[in-house]
Design goal:
This protein is mostly helical and 216 residues long. The protein has one domain. 75% of the residues lie in helices and 0% in strands. The N and C termini lie far apart (58 Å).
Length: 216
């Protein structure tokens, strides 16, 4: 499996695959966008480590291996995340009877809509958008909830961009440092993915914990 993924990460198509996965996982949270970002960053780390032995490779006349650019990967994942959020936000804003019924049937979307109605208006309330980006399905709930609640785009977009930068930076960092320390092996990939899942579990706990009642 790692060999197949390694072939993809050695191709410029990795950016298109990552961008498409991140763009669409706001509608299909089951897409492994985080795993793809981590794997590509791990390949970049493995490539940078291999570059240290480039003198030996040059002496043996071995062709250099293409590896993803960390900066390009970060920009790609961040941009796709913001664009996906905006698409979901605008679709929910325009609404429709079918979408309204879908939101009403989902406890997660209904709760997000209620929280966002007040949270985005506060100075630090938009942190909910950033935290939810790490929680499973949280991105979908927040983006659709903000649109359905008709929050203004200037209230939602800056937090969406901050959430995208935080999530992409964390995922790329996990893959890169995991690859530096453990190499491009299933152990390194598993440790990085587990760290991403741990952040998601923590984010879900923070979102779901009871809130203290506001003082009059």
């Amino acid at each position: 499996m790692l060999d197949s993924v390694g072939m993809l990460t050695g191709s410029p198509w990795i950016y298109a695959v990552v961008a498409l996965s991140v763009l669409l996982d706001v509608f299909l949270p089951v897409l492994p966008s985080g795993v793809l970002v981590i794997t590509a960053a791990t390949a970049a780390a493995a490539g940078s480590t291999a570059a240290a032995g480039s003198a030996t490779a040059a002496a043996e006349k071995m062709p250099p291996q293409e590896v993803p650019s960390l900066l390009a990967l970060l920009l790609c994942a961040t941009t796709a995340s913001v664009l996906g959020d905006l698409v979901a936000y605008h679709l929910a804003w325009r609404g429709g009877a079918r979408l309204d019924r879908a939101i009403a049937r989902s406890r997660r979307l209904t709760t997000a809509q209620e929280h966002l109605g007040a949270a985005l208006g506060h100075r630090c309330g938009g942190l909910l958008v950033v935290i939810a980006r790490f929680a499973p399905g949280g991105r979908s709930a927040v983006s659709l909830g903000a649109g359905a609640a008709h929050r203004r785009v200037r209230e939602f977009l800056p937090w969406s961009a901050l959430a995208a930068v935080a999530w992409a930076g964390y995922s790329v960092g996990l893959g890169y440092f995991g690859g530096q320390w453990l190499g491009m092996t299933w152990v390194g990939a598993a440790v990085s993915v587990l760290a991403l899942c741990a952040a998601g579990s923590l984010a879900a706990y923070v979102i779901r914990r009871p809130r203290a009642p506001e003082r009059a």
